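Dear colleague,

Thank you for sharing your sequence with our group. We've completed the structure prediction you requested, and as agreed, I am returning the results in plain text so they can be pasted directly into your records. Please verify that the sequence below matches your submission; if there's any discrepancy, let me know and we will rerun it promptly.
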Amino acid sequence: MISFSDFIIFLNVFIATIFASNAYIPDASLSVPKIIKRHGYPSETHIVDTKDGYLLEVHRIPHGKNSKQYRKFPVFLQHGVVASSADWIINGPSKALAYQLADNGFDVWLGNSRGNTYSRSHKSLSPDSEEFWNFSFHEMGIYDLPATIDYILERTNQSQLYYIGHSMGSCMFFVMCSMRPEYNYKIRAQISLAPVAYVHHMTSFLNTLVPYANEIQKASNWVSKGAFLPQNAASKLVNKYLCGDNAVNSMLCKKYIVYKMFGEDTVQFDMTLLPIILGHNPAGTSVKTLIHFAQEITTKNFQQFDFGIEKNLDVYNCSHPPKYNLSNIIVPIAFYYAKNDILADPTDVVELYSHLPNRLGLHLIKFDKFNHVDFLYSKNVTDMVYQSVMNTIFKAEFVGWIPEFDNATAFNALSDYNKCNDDRNARTTNNGFWHKITSIIKKKEVYPLTSIMKEDKEKNVRLRNTYVMAWNQTYFE
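Please find the predicted structure tokens below.
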């Protein structure tokens, strides 16, 4: 909590500096396409429409500044919660991942999830309506990502791409591949930076808001129709005058904005970037997205949105929401995580990793103070993270690449992801009519991954090797 004395200091500094800072920092006020062009890179803007009508703005760096060398597969970068495509370029040409990938010959695409600064449009809904903001990371996973991936593959005439997600950008991916497993085969390899799905060990001060989630939702619906932290003139004013170059301002921003939310790192976090970061963040999302994460903290599960018993029965035919089936995610995946990440806690990251069948490696950053946003803004992020990420992608560029999966951590399949033992309603019981009907339907459908749920470890290994061979022969030729 902020003490009274800290609040007085905070208020005095704000009043004293609101008229004092006149420094202009271009990257803090320009749009992402303009920033990319300002640094001498080619820039394109594309509009992707989703199946449910949202219009997403996607930014593209088709090649490097001084080279038009093209590698085979494009790279899709997806930002985290209340963020935008700006996250991938804020660190500048010498450090930001988007620029480094482009300079290494990759066609780079920067996604923007529904509701953020660049994706506040819909074919028929106004962002001033509650209906527009009725979404969470679930809809981002089943609608936004598939639409963007299909668009990229169509424009580049490729069958696969690399996916790199930070924080919620990884969460959206897990939702997509568990709910729409056909998209596994459109991803060459996936890189998760500070992956988020299980969050019950999170120690960020955001965790203190969980008990008040419903009240926050009601207040937000009344004030902003369900929008959460949208970027507007007021937020830009506060960011500009409260977190400028002034030393006292920087101290306050570090203490109350960065360290309390993401983890304290006085060494690697580049404070000179703070005005630029706050010029683009928060970029906004829906309150429902935050409520969904709050539910994950409370239940300790990675599951679909909980609407309450009555609506759950209508939506899921069960009184509680089903868990996401992580065993459906057969994409080769590499994890990068940090000890001092108080949002993506190492315990939660390792738990998530153990539920994924095809793992390329679990990489712990070799610096104990590395935090959640250091994956984007660290002074030495290239040496600590990005070089390893690019080496993983470089290996996958070979035509005959066969993933070398990590067997050091035991695979822990979730066997109860879709079970519903609810005696309140016959539709949801194992002896009920609904269960019998759905069981017949499921027998007619093809589930290539159901056998991996079996507990026979030796058989699982054989099955997994079969999947690898089939993957290589069918999709990596």
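Summary note from our side: The chain is about 40% helix and 10% strand.

Kind regards,
the structure core
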